Fold this protein.
Amino acid sequence: MQETVITSANKAYALLKADADKILKLIQVQMDNLTMPQCPLYEEVLDTHMFGLSKSIDFAVRMDLIEEQDGKALLDNLEKQLNFIHEKSQQK
Amino acid sequence: MQETVITSANKAYALLKADADKILKLIQVQMDNLTMPQCPLYEEVLDTHMFGLSKSIDFAVRMDLIEEQDGKALLDNLEKQLNFIHEKSQQK
């Protein structure tokens, strides 16, 4: 049983991390290809994806699949990386 | 181990069902108290909540915690109930 719990937790974290990476990739592609990174749609798309991920993380925490602090770290880390990409694109 | 899986599935479904009920309750309260149920904010709030719930359900399905058809039924059922409430409020 202990093994089952650990496996589920690993799977949950891996799924959520993959979701976060997908958002990062999407934004990266947008940044590389858009002539206008200040496009309001960018903010809206990003907000929607971040909200969706936060809901999945929230559910995983309530299911005791991941620790609350790990979920928070996942979101914070994604946000930091997105800010970094955004700043870099502004300097172009 | 079988027992653990069943318990997790029950918990997952109960959590998602409670989320759906919360959305229904929120909309019901809004309908009962708002003078303008056609307010655009109503649609936006509802969309956001539905999207959040669909993301949690999606995650639960990917974690094999609930069946895809059960998740879909949960969302469809909520939508039907919301439409019913909405129609009723229009007839007032």
Notes: The interface with chain B takes residues 1, 4-5, 8, 11-12, 15-16, 48, 51-53, 55-56, 58-60, 62-63, 65 of chain A (CB under 8 Å). Residues 2-90 of chain A form a domain with the Helix Hairpins fold (CATH 1.10.287.750).
